[in-house]
User: What shape does this take?
Amino acid sequence: MASNRVAAGAGVGDVDLQGKTVLVTGSTGGIGRETALALGSLGARVLVHGRDREAGAAVVEALHEAGAEAEFIRADFASLPDVRDLAEDVKTTTGRLDVLVNNAGGYFREPRLTEAGVEYTFAVNHLAPFLLTNLLIPTLRAAPAGRVVTVSSEAHRSGTLDLDAVESVERYAPFSAYARSKLANVMFTFELARRLDAVTANCLHPGVIPASGFMRNLPLPIRAPAQFVGSVLTSVPFSPVSSVREGAETPVYLAASPEVADVTGRYFDDCQPRRAAAAARDEGAQRRLWEYSAEVTGLQDIEEV
Ligand SMILES: NC(=O)c1ccc[n+]([C@@H]2O[C@H](COP(=O)([O-])OP(=O)(O)OC[C@H]3O[C@@H](n4cnc5c(N)ncnc54)[C@H](OP(=O)(O)O)[C@@H]3O)[C@@H](O)[C@H]2O)c1
Assistant: This one.
């Protein structure tokens, strides 16, 4: 099933990832699952992550059937202790991590604060990958050419980095919260790339993919027609929407292609570098976001990158 799942044009057809270990967060479904299967089919050992144990076991089984080594590690990204445990589990499992794909995330309709008192979307989509990446930097540095790939979105162009808004849900607006978290993904990537040597950091828009689980939190009257229209549009030429498998092309390209081995600090769309929004390129704001995220996650007590 998972053999040669990488679509043509992704620039990784001949790549051999034997001996490399990759962690794909949020790989129990959607784009992450397809990314995990594609990287496994190229020979990588895949660490599958998510919350749903049954779905995780199914992805591991699919990877085993394709001849790849794989294991599932559970962690809820709304919980900072869970993220720390995930990092520890990864370090115990492998001394060296070649690729970290920060993919887990979603669109969350209900206003919620996490136990740390942070707005849920910001916590899951930004703070969790921020903390995980930082905790795994020594493990990524142990690889000959570590890569961090973060799945953002074109929605980042609508985002504003209002850090007061992430400590309250009083005026919660789901799309604003999502766009802010995806802007944070891009800003984090750019700041990370400046702080890292020997490990690359890039981010991406995967396309518009109605067939993933992304719409699961939308109300049924919106979700059902959107998924129907999406499924019809996916199969037409020059479609504005993509299949889940197509959604994995850019993350797989950035995780595996030799073409981008030395590329860092860039935003990609459809396997091509693209200029990110001006707000994402503001270096002062990137530093403020970094410092804020380090404080909220307790990172400065652990390690400074
Ligand atoms: N679909 C699109 O059109 C689109 C467009 C632009 C960007 N993106 C981005 O692409 C990424 C993947 O989305 P998708 O479309 O593939 O959605 P999806 O099918 O819903 O997959 C999301 C993945 O993230 C995991 N996840 C969600 N909440 C989590 C939490 N609290 N803790 C741990 N894991 C969690 C899920 O695992 P469990 O179910 O096991 O918890 C699942 O494996 C997201 O970052 C999203 O923002 C998607």
